[in-house]
Amino acid sequence: MQVENSSVKTQFFLLGVSDHPELQSVLFAVFLSVYSVTLMGNLRMILLITISPHLHTPIYFFLHILSFIDACYSSVIAPKLLVDLISDKKTISHNGCAAQFYFFCCLVDTEPFLFTVMAYDQYIAICNPLLYTVIMSKRICCQLAIGAFLGGTMSSVIHTTNTFHLSFCSSEINHYFCDISPLFSLSCTDTYIHDIVLVVFASLVEALCLLTVLFSYILIIAPILKAQSADGRRKGFSTCASHLIVVSINNGTLIFIYLHPSACHLLDIDKVTSVFYAFIIPMLNRLIYSLRNKDVKNAFRKMISRKFLS
Q1: pTM for this prediction
Q2: Is residue 219 helix, strand or coil?
Q3: Where are the bilayer-spanning segments (predicted)?
Q4: How far is the C-alpha of 196 from the C-alpha of 56, rounded, in Å?
Q5: Closest among 173, 168, 203, 24 to 100, alpha carbons compared
Q6: How many whole angstroms from its chain centre is CA 206?
Q7: What's the pLDDT score for residue 2?
Q8: pLDDT for res 223
């Protein structure tokens, strides 16, 4: 649908998750359930780490931030999607679209930097345990967390500027939120340069973060294998496995969606994949760290016990 430039700059029309109206109520129930579990689970993790003194360590400080990011970036997408599923008119203003795109990119792009920081924390904890409290002081942890957010913010500014610098010929976005690929498909002009900027910058960020994580764990393996107790080795491998599973799922999905030219994108496939990334992964991150972490499970039991005994 061709529209005048002024209209395109005023609002966009979101085509949504499905073209079948009879599925809207079912999809609403499914997304509401998943979003509720994701939000409550991550908020519970934040509360648990906040009120449990024995979880006031650097790794749980970063896990606290990860839960906050997961809760926030789901909330950037879910409320608007839920409203659209029960509305006939699925519109979003140009500024609202840009804001949604910016905050989603900022939070999602912060995660690879945060995973890198968490890998560094694990490296220091296992390879330099005697200096751990000195190296990973509260001030250093805060600086590393701020650095991760600055990295995500810089990445988001670049992608938002790169995307909304385009001239859009159509106002129909074949998606349920404002994402790069469907917005590129609306462009009146060739997006080759914009594709190059996206792929090159995203590749550099992903490569830097992934290589740092992998290098950290290569250095970690030897000390874990040398641990005298089987319990120590098991705990070390369990912690590392949880982190590597989360990194693999998050970064693998991110690479699949974004690291290829927009001309090669199949928007319907991207739509399904983004559901996994925007809704399922924030829920899985919390579950993986909770179910595989004895300290978190013990803290949760204590919190439940205090609640029933009080």
Answers
A1: 0.86
A2: helix
A3: 26-47, 59-79, 99-120, 140-158, 196-225, 237-260, 272-291
A4: 43
A5: 173
A6: 13
A7: 42
A8: 76
Which single residue is written with the structure tokens 């509401």? 32
- Mean pLDDT over each residue of the chain, to the nearest integer: 82
**Residue with token string 């990119």:** 105
Q: In terms of Cα–Cα distance, which of 157, 152, 78 is closest to 116? A: 152
Name the one residue in this structure whose structure tokens are 């924030």: 282
Contact between 42 and 71 under an 8 Å Cβ cutoff? The reply is yes
What residue segments make up the domains of the chain, in order of their start? 5-309
From CA 169, how far away is CA 252, in angstroms rounded?
32
CA–CA separation, 218 and 34 (whole Å): 35
Q: Residue holding tokens 């500027």?
A: 161
CATH assignment of 5-309, given 1.10.10.10, 2.60.40.10, 3.40.50.1970, 1.20.1070.10? 1.20.1070.10
Per residue in 187-240, pLDDT (tens digit) is 888 888 888 888 888 888 888 888 998 888 888 887 777 766 666 666 667 667
H or E, element range at 248: helix 230-258
> Hey, what are 1's tokens?
């649908």
